[in-house]
Amino acid sequence: MQRLVDLSVLVENSPSEPLKMQTERLDHVEGAKHFCHEVETRNAAKQPADPRRLYPQDFPDAAFITLDTVTLPTHMGTHIDAPIHYGPNCEGKPARSIDQLPLEWFFAPGVRLDLRHKAAGTFITIEDIQVALDATGHKLQPLDIVLLWTGTDKLWGKREYFSHAPGMSREATEWLTQQGIKVIGIDTYGFDRPFVTMLEDFWRTGDREHLWPAHFYGRECEYIQIERLANLDQLPDTGFQVSCFPLKVKGLDASWVRAVAMVN
User: Fold this and answer.
1) Segment 120-148, tens digit of pLDDT
2) Do 45 and 85 lie in a common domain?
3) 36: which DSSP letter?
4) 177-207 core/surface letters (b: 16 or more CB in 10 A; e: else)
């Protein structure tokens, strides 16, 4: 029997999210009026003499079905970044959008790496990854989904979530991709270190290598990352499958995902 673990944060306007979503609902009552008006308008345009009509009271309790319209940035909530997010080209070819990626990447065995000891603002290094991997006793296989457990999801709902977290180094990202890993997830706002940390280091040193090094590595090697995971504390180190299929929306640089772990 399998236990399902929800690895996704709630998509909502939150102090943890600098971006905002907007929702507008056509409710049951207004929906009934709107739909009946649309039917009448279309019928009149096609067949002016047609006496047939549809009225709100023809629906149970004069209530129709709702319609929500959502304006939502692709990088809100738990989401997957596509290669085109990192740059226009990847491995010398046009970078792929989210709808062009193989399904096989998004359903695979998972391994959780415990990196909770990493301080906010620090890089996750190759050594950090190797030590955490050794502790699991797992030997990475191509297409394993690697989940980086920092514990930052416990700050969800607070402003600190956006600014108090470690981040992946370019070198650690490269090392994982060299093992055949295509999907790397993390329970922080972003895959790199927090924005404020990267900018402060850049302004202090003038070194551009401080700016989104793991993201920009995605121009050289095709891989993707899941940002804003949650509940990694409910997983074992190994022995589970990860399902993280993105929506098939043409041309997007990222997709919202309901990431779920199936624990044996």
Assistant:
1) 999 999 999 999 999 999 999 999 999 99
2) no
3) H
4) beeebbbbbbbbbbbbbbbebbeebeeeeee
Please state whether beta strands 107-114 and 145-149 pair in parallel, antiparallel, or not at all (unpaired): parallel
Q: Clarify whether residues 89 and 207 are in a common domain.
A: yes
Mark whether 8 and 64 lie in a shared domain: no
Task: Give the separation between CA 210 and CA 81, rounded to whole angstroms.
Answer: 20
With contact defined as beta carbons under 8 Å apart, do 23 and 69 qualify?
yes
Domain with 144 in it: what CATH number? 3.50.30.50
Provide the number of structural domains found in the chain. 2
Same domain, 235 and 165: yes
* 157 and 32, same domain (yes or no): no
The pLDDT tens digits of the residues spanning 229-248 come to 999 999 999 999 999 999 99
Of the candidates 185, 97, 19, which has an alpha carbon nearest to the alpha carbon of residue 11?
A: 19
Q: How far is C-alpha 242 from the chain's CA centre?
A: 14
pTM for the whole structure:
0.91
Same domain, yes or no, for 39 and 151? no
Q: Who contacts 67 (Cβ-Cβ below 8 Å, separation ≥6)?
A: 25, 26, 31
